[in-house]
Amino acid sequence: AKERAGSVEQLIVQLRKERALNEDGELSMSSRWFNRLVTRAAIPFEPGRWAMMSCLFALVSGGVVYHLMGQVLFALGTAVFMLFFAPYFVLSTLGKKRTAKLSLQLPDALSVIVRSLEAGHPVPTAIALVGSEMPDPIGTEFGMLADEMTYGSSLNDAVRRLAERTCSPDIDLFAATIRLQQKTGGNL
């Protein structure tokens, strides 16, 4: 991906835009709840393609209901319902699966961070190690975290955006711990 993007900075911006984030890594859509669903699911956000797929699914489901029941109003209601419910259902399901996988991988990632810190590496290096050594989705998220810190974000801002991207309570606790350690200066 880095080779296709040209530079790491361009890759970060590209990955953020694919997840419905702006260039600064913040939520970009006016509908916050939908933006969080898209970001949490971590699938490329292509509004035109998504709209076309939703319309197609709505038409097919409406057609099936009309064919089975013969009622136009009920078929129309089903099509309208599916037009809005199908994207929500898909994004919600993908997001829940991804969050569960992140939660399963987090203990191993924290173990890598702890070993790296005990070896004397700084926090950004320990985080970058998780990004390069762990599989997706935790590796991708920590890789983005490391790249954000490398290209100008503070550790506090980068872990805050990580928690917002993942919408995982476990990652949120990790981010809160990092932010607290940065403020108090204790031994992480």
If you had to describe this structure to a student in words, what would you say it looks like?
The chain has helices at 2-5, 8-18, 32-41, 47-69, 72-118, 123-133, 138-150, 155-166, 169-184. The radius of gyration is 20 Å and the shape is elongated. The mean pLDDT is 86. The chain contains 9 helices and no strands. Helix content is 78%, strand content 0%.
Task: State the share of residues found in helices, binned by percent.
Answer: over 70%
pLDDT averaged residue by residue: 86
Shape: elongated
Contiguous low-pLDDT stretches (5 residues minimum) are none
Determine Rg (CA atoms, Å).
20 Å
What structural class is derived from the secondary structure elements?
A: mainly alpha
- Terminal-residue CA separation: 32 Å
SSE sequence, one letter per element: HHHHHHHHH
Summed up, the helix count is 9
Q: State which percent range the strand residues make up.
A: under 5%
Q: Tell how many strands the DSSP assignment holds.
A: 0
Biggest β-sheet, characterized? none
List the helices and strands and how they pair.
Layout: H1 2-5, H2 8-18, H3 32-41, H4 47-69, H5 72-118, H6 123-133, H7 138-150, H8 155-166, H9 169-184
